[in-house]
Known about the structure:
Layout lengths: L3 H18 L4 H15 L3 E7 L6 E7 L3 H4 L12 H4 L3 E3 L11 H6 L4 E9 L2 E10 L7 H21 L10 H4 L8 H12 L5 E2 L4 E6 L2 E6 L3 E3 L4 E5 L8 H13 L5 E4 L1 H10 L13 E6 L1 H18 L6 E5 L4 H10 L5 E7 L12 E3 L9 E9 L3 H11 L5 E9 L12 E5 L22 E4 L3 H9 L4
Parallel strand pairs: 10-11, 13-14, 13-16, 16-17, 17-18
Antiparallel strand pairs: 1-2, 1-5, 3-4, 4-5, 6-9, 7-8, 9-10, 12-19, 14-15
Helix pairs in contact: 1-2, 1-6, 2-6, 11-12
Amino acid sequence: MVSSKERTYAKTVRRAITAVISEINLYDTLAVIVRGTARSMKAGASLVLLDASGKQLVHSITWGLPRYYIQKGIPDAHRSLSEVIDGETVIIENVSQDSRVQYRRMAINAGIVSIIGTPIMIDGLPIGSIRVYTKQTCNCSKQDIGFIKMIASLIAIAFKVHLPIKEKSQIKTLKHVQPVTFAHPSEKDFARILDFYNMEWVYEPRSFPLKWDGDRVTEMFTPDFYLPGLDLYVELTTLKQSLVTNKNRKLRKLKEMYPDININLLYKNDYNHLLAKYGVGPLSQTRARGIKQILYSADDIKNRVIELAKKISKDYKDRRPILVGIQRGFICFMADLMRQITVPLDLDFIAISYYTGDGDSVVKITKDMDLNIAGRDVIVVEDIVDTGITLNYILNHLKARKPTSLAVCALLNRQIRRIVNLSINYSGFELPDEFVVGYGLDYKEEYRNLPFIAIPNIKKSQLKENAQSPRS
């Protein structure tokens, strides 16, 4: 005779199959499966996916679990259960007594007694796990384990149906399973920029306790984003730097209490300049008129370029490096630099598409290198290194081609706005937190032909007016 549990499991599997073969998107398909799993087993459930490093697991879709438990931290694939590493189903009967539970205290506080984890495999390789969290001790039967394994298989099929691929390495699981409701439009714009560069991100992934009253947490800090590939948390603020005193206080406290955590705060000016670079935001609509201040004169630039060229010539003696320019702002710098380098060299270029803010854009190399750089010494020539996001993408693209060495030569290095930590081997000038034009650098295609580098004259009233008007 068919049991009630067996009927429930069969019904859930049928619904999951229907979702997989339907025309709904991947996120909604997986949400149906996770929700059905939780309800069938009268428990909480979560789809955890490996990040690009293969070291961390991210709660991507959950059902029936408290938010504070999901935001407890980013689980380590080696320390949290072990199903993804071993490729086998893991059953934790009592979380309070099992060392394989990474955040044991938080699990107990959430009322979780048992955890079952089954790996999700595609072409023999794990991409994550489906985990079930029960509030009673789980005496799992073969029927229960068989059901969870079936769910894991259907999730794998869902990925293959929605993301047809030839190689597992092409699956960007976090990128395709991250639809969220952002608290502020600035967060949505930032997520689109990350998508543009194909960078994995997690929204509000973790809450850091900062103050307690006994066992009760009375103050917490939840960063807006976590970038797994960089092991970096990012907090955005659209307030002026002078108005974020309390947020700065919390960040200082967080860094003191959690010294191993990497976190950056993007202030309003940082954020607006970042958006302007991609043609959106208030600064993108402001047409600068005139020059406010010259930072580096034509002679300053000439002398510094000669110094950089001498150092490069010395470092690459008896070698033939390839200079790779990133179109288009590098043109003046590259032309002057190469004429001063005394060792033989080759020249090539890369062009990338620009983020427009419309739809789900991703980075695209519109003109790739013509030369084969395998076994060669490569120097990437940039006009300015700002957040480091663009350069980080390009360096990863070039590293895949296996050059013998890869260096960066940048005329301007704006370290204060850096998001991605990068090594600049040859740096011309340290740039202050100002928007600059000239010597190849433009503002809405103006000022490229200026022989010096300067701060354009943009009135604060104009910025304020544009910031309040709707974007086109």
